[in-house]
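[recover] target loaded
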């Protein structure tokens, strides 16, 4: 049996009411709030915290750390090694990045599920966009980590039972190196490309997992393309009441971490023997099907998704948001500097020892 052993989510403490954008600029914003990474957080530090929470719920020893983000802290340097070091994992653990787009997390998850032994799959993102634009308001920051691997029903809380993918090359969303904001093509054109792929991929996933829409208990539908997500349920065929809230009004769309965060929320609510269908729309369509085991009844995450959502504080100003993102020429706050060591006492050097 192969599947999910443990999971952990991390959401930043700071939240900004989207109405702050309209107050400052006279446009943009909307309803709800978004999670905002602090001035001293990046995708790696958030990923490390999610990974710490995931590892707190298992004794499994991952042989790989697979890190995915669309906003890496470093290029020409592996970010996953910082997560490996933060968790004090052994030197024989492979740590690699799988970055570039939100779909990269799907690739990391697929690699982890096929790894020889346990693997730690981490997704993290900081989403932003043009001031007063839709991406800025609808985005959110956060991270997710899952430990996947082999085991019996006592170790695996959700068995992977099948899936499928559909890929087609077309222009939907892109950001060239050096750009601060993504460019997005007219969503109507993307919708026309995505929905036939949703229909095809979901149909093949049902066949591969040997389940029907009526047997699905939870649906996680994620991605950055809003129109395609609105049209996808017609082809998924599952009762609307079974869709998991991906918390876009409470924290925003967390990009690379959204699909994993939705899966974690589904696992928080699932009982034994339930089927979870995961559908991700982005540069194609990817579908995964999981079935929970008896072990889910005794599993307690270190911090549930609901706890993470409730643990934030709304009140961040738009000026601080822009400062932390580096858009305003203001110095962000700094942590207090550590005390400087005192000078050695006067006398001979051998007396200092």
């Amino acid at each position: 049996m192969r599947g999910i052993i443990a999971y952990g989510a991390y959401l930043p403490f700071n939240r900004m009411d989207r109405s702050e954008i309209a107050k400052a600029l006279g446009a943009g914003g909307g309803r709800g709030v978004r999670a905002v990474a602090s001035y001293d957080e990046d995708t790696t530090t958030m990923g490390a915290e999610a990974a710490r929470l995931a590892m707190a719920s298992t004794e499994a020893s991952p042989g790989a750390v697979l890190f995915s983000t669309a906003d890496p802290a470093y290029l020409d340097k592996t970010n996953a090694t910082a997560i490996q070091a933060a968790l004090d994992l052994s030197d024989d653990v492979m740590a690699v990045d799988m970055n570039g787009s939100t779909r990269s997390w799907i690739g990391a998850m697929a690699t982890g599920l096929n790894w020889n032994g346990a693997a730690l799959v981490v997704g993290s993102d900081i989403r932003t966009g043009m001031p007063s634009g839709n991406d800025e308001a609808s985005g959110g920051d956060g991270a997710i980590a899952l430990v996947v691997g082999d085991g019996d029903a006592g170790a695996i809380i959700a068995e992977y039972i099948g899936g499928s993918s559909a890929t087609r090359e077309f222009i939907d969303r892109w950001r060239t190196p050096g750009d601060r904001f993504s460019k997005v093509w007219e969503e109507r054109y993307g919708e026309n490309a995505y929905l036939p792929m949703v229909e095809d991929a979901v149909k093949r996933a049902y066949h591969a997992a040997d389940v029907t829409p009526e047997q699905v208990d939870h649906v996680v539908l994620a991605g950055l393309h809003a129109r395609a997500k609105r049209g996808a349920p017609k082809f998924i065929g599952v009762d609307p009441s079974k869709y998991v809230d991906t918390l876009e009004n409470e924290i925003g769309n967390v990009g690379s971490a959204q699909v994993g965060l939705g899966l974690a929320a589904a696992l928080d609510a699932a009982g034994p023997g339930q089927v979870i269908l995961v559908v991700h729309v982005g540069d194609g369509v990817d579908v995964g099907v999981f079935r929970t085991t008896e072990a889910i009844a005794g599993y307690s995450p270190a911090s549930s998704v609901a706890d993470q959502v409730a643990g934030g504080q709304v009140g961040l100003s738009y000026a601080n948001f822009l400062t932390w993102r580096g858009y305003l020429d203001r110095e962000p706050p700094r942590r207090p500097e550590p005390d400087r060591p005192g000078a050695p006492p006067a006398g001979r050097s051998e007396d200092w020892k």
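[recover] notes: The longest helix spans residues 187-209.
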